[in-house]
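Lab channel / #folding
Pinned by the channel admin:
"Please post every new chain as: sequence first, then the structure tokens as a reply. Keep commentary short and put observations after the output so the thread stays searchable."

First post following the new format, from NK:
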Amino acid sequence: MKVKRLTNGPLALLIGISAAAASAVPFASPAGATTRTETAMMATTKAGVFAKLLSKDSFRMTSGMHSYVVKLDAMAHVTFDGKMATLAQIKKGDGVKVTGEVEMGDIIATKVAASGM
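Reply from TO:
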């Protein structure tokens, strides 16, 4: 039986393209999954009422029927009535407007603006 070589023709071209495409596809890895999760955060702005100070850099707020834990990032700006402030200066019932990213149900805040009511 004689073996025919497939060096020319459409089948050889197809095999070459398939091999090239397979080598260009990155493999899934846990590190790749982490990167996709980090980029899946959603930017948001929420307005509500300050409910409780949890720590020097986190608090609970309510907005409508929802309750959120807000955590300040390292570069967050906090203001109270337009002046620089700390979370300790904000009291229960004060209005707050939080800008940041939602991560696993919490808001990682880059800006918190509060006003006395």
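NK: Residues 32-39 have pLDDT under 50 and may be disordered.
TO: also worth noting, The longest strand covers residues 66-80.
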